Amino acid sequence: xxxxxxxxxxxxPPLNALRVFEVAARTGSYSEAASELGLTHGAVSRxxxxxxxxxxxxxxxxxxxxxxxTPVARIFAVEVSGAFERMTTAAEACGRPDARxxxxxxxxxxxxxxxxxxxxxxxxxxCPSVEVVVTTVSTxxxxxxxxxxxxxxxxxxxxxxxxxxxxxxxxDDVDTVIMSPSLFARRPILDLADLEGHRLLxxxxxxxxxxxxxxxxxxxxxxxxxxxxxxxxxxTRQAVLDGLGIGIGPLPMLDIDIAMGQFVTPLPQIRxxxxxYVALLPEGTNKTAPAVHFVEWLARExxxxxxxxx
Length: 310
Hints:
This protein folds into 2 domains: about 5-80, Orthogonal Bundle (Arc Repressor Mutant, subunit A), CATH 1.10.10.10; about 100-310, D-Maltodextrin-Binding Protein, domain 2. Helices cover about 40% and strands about 20% of the residues. The protein has helices spanning about 15-25, 30-35, 40-55, 70-95, 110-115, 120-125, 180-185, 210-215, 235-240, 250-260, 290-310, and strands at about 60-65, 65-70, 100-110, 130-135, 150-155, 165-180, 200-205, 225-230, 245-250, 270-280. About 30% of the residues are buried.
């Protein structure tokens, strides 16, 4: 007699529809869900309708041109995501030990581009059987939802700070002034007085950077100066690289750029310490899973960076 095909199996909702629903709720878009799953928009809509029929209630409502998850659907999606994560963990534990493993890492864009990706070859050398797939979020405070094995967010690793996740401190965040070598050659900044006349470049995703730095530099009278604002730090970084002005940059994420001579830090003694980055593992992750080894590697890399800059 099988213990796997008893009565409760008959009451499960359609699993394919659940998968489509989880992706649609996570991405907030039928179109993005279709792209991620390799389906058509119509196929996603039909699977959602099938699940709605099974549950007896609507899961999405139309808002303009988008389909938005209902409050009940958002709660349901969190539970479904957790269930899929537990199934993934169980499947990995039962899988072939020599099989190539996929590790899904979700991180803020700037962290992924300027710190993580340039170091991934080191992890691949250490764990050649693990394939890392990196997805990004636009802000460091993006909501945690399913679809990843490891998430990187700004925050602290204290107890209770991240419900349903285990947090490990990875990287400090220290801000200072950055500028391009070409701009420094034309209009060097050798002391605080040399800031006068320079265009200040700022990022919406890192609000308050200039205010905090100017206060640390004891230059509060410059706080009201106009700034050129970009929507994301990686755009601001490019503007600084092009010599359009000076910006505030996070040193750990720009270590490689500085070492390669792309930026200079004209006033390195003036720094602002910010909340750093943590790596998050869903509770219940197997201690031998690739995600655990990846987080341990992240922490070692972050520690090595702290030793180099201390």
